[in-house]
Amino acid sequence: MKKYNVFITSNAIEDIEDVFNYIALTFKAPLTAKRFRDGLYREIIGLSVYAGAISVSHNKSIQDLYGLGARRINYKKLAIIYIIDGNDVFVERIIRAEAIKEL
What we know:
Elements: E1 5-8, H1 10-26, H2 30-50, H3 60-66, E2 71-75, E3 78-85, E4 88-96, H4 99-102
Parallel strand pairs: 1-4
Antiparallel strand pairs: 2-3, 3-4
Helix pairs in contact: 1-2
């Protein structure tokens, strides 16, 4: 089984922290925010094993914004957008899944 090196871009890290802060501050639920963030990171790290098994996104907006090889997986109500370059996976953005329809 092929293993990938997973890299998270600064934009994606900022997206994750925005979600964390939203949950922690808006709902006054820091423990829930931490659990959510931990789960999100586990999902991203899991890409090291199965990133290539996910098909390239057919969404034109995703392809236009992130490149022709962009892929998407979901974590709860978020979309994790990533690209594969050789043995490397680059997580580009973490956005609300419903926002994909708005692009």
